[in-house]
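Moderator note: this is an archived Q&A kept for reference. The question asked for a predicted structure of one protein chain; the sequence and the answer are reproduced below.
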Amino acid sequence: MTRKRNLNPDSYYHVIMRGNNRQPIFGTHRDMLELMRIFQHAHDRYPFHLLAYCFMTNHYHLLMKTESVPLGKIMGHINRRYTASFSKRYNHVGRIYQRRYFSKEVKSYPGLLAVSKYIHRNPINTKQPLVNRLEWYPYSSYPFYFDESKKAPRFLKVDILKEYLPHPLEKTNAEYCSFCNMVPVQQTILKESKY
């Protein structure tokens, strides 16, 4: 029996989806492109927007707000389509995800900044950093904040987070990127905070 989630339609949520047994399920460039294509398709069908995302090899993070469709319906659509695609490409039988998605409401502007920073720092906050600079990681929303000439996916809103930067930081995406490169947000602080 699935439990019903009481989600606030006006809030952003930190959403995490993990591979079963933490196994890689987004291991190649083609896998990442397929996941991005599925997000675009889901957005066209069930409008939502993201403030931040990061696709890693065995999980992904989203900072997400839905518009009119429940979060569970959107996530179910995305995960079913990716599972079908993955199973077909790799002749895989069985589940690829560890369990249903994790979601936690982000209730404050400082929380949105902290969670987005945590998401964007994922590629360098690993035991073995995947890149030396955040803008070099192509499977994250960070490069669209770093270089505003890059065409962002339709579901990504890069004009919101900068407005929540505290004084004395300027309300620009360049300053938001500087904020992301400051002392890292500790995972334990995020877990214990109310966002």
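Archived answer notes: The mean pLDDT is 88.
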